[in-house]
């Protein structure tokens, strides 16, 4: 049986949604757009966010401060000025126990969160498919989408989840080390989605 490690144990530096207050802060529509954009560009100022999102700098500055209260965004160290700060995503851990209790206590907010997550991931994947005809062949051939359905015990699914996390951590850490040593040349932002979950009881067909 695999040892269960929480997301907080794996990524202690990440922010967490622990209660209704932080959940409400995270699911605010403009704040989600800010977070989604930061995940794509890595770092931005309130001014660049305002231009991209079609909002005023006053709005983006305010919502960045609200996100920062919960650690959802962090100020980039040694960059920017007192007048113009640079921000990056603070990462996010979502524990299964917290998700279950939050869903029971705040079903509408959790429904909003789920819709935001799925909608954003689906939109980025659709953009990838629409643009693949014009993509550099070197990048086009390394993209992948794959889905499989099978029958497992909860222990087997846990073992799969932990191994996938290990593989993802190993490769993202290696890429980060390489960038620190060699710079950004040849690198692009990429999206890695991982969804491992049980289907409703009765859905037992493999495929």
Automatic annotation (TrEMBL):
Keywords: DNA-binding, Transcription, Transcription regulation. Residues 21-98 form the HTH arsR-type domain. The keyword Transcription regulation applies. Gene3D superfamilies: Winged helix-like DNA-binding domain superfamily/Winged helix DNA-binding domain (1.10.10.10). Pfam families: HTH_20 (PF12840). The keyword DNA-binding applies. GO terms for molecular function: DNA binding; DNA-binding transcription factor activity. This is Helix-turn-helix transcriptional regulator. It comes from Nesterenkonia sedimenti.
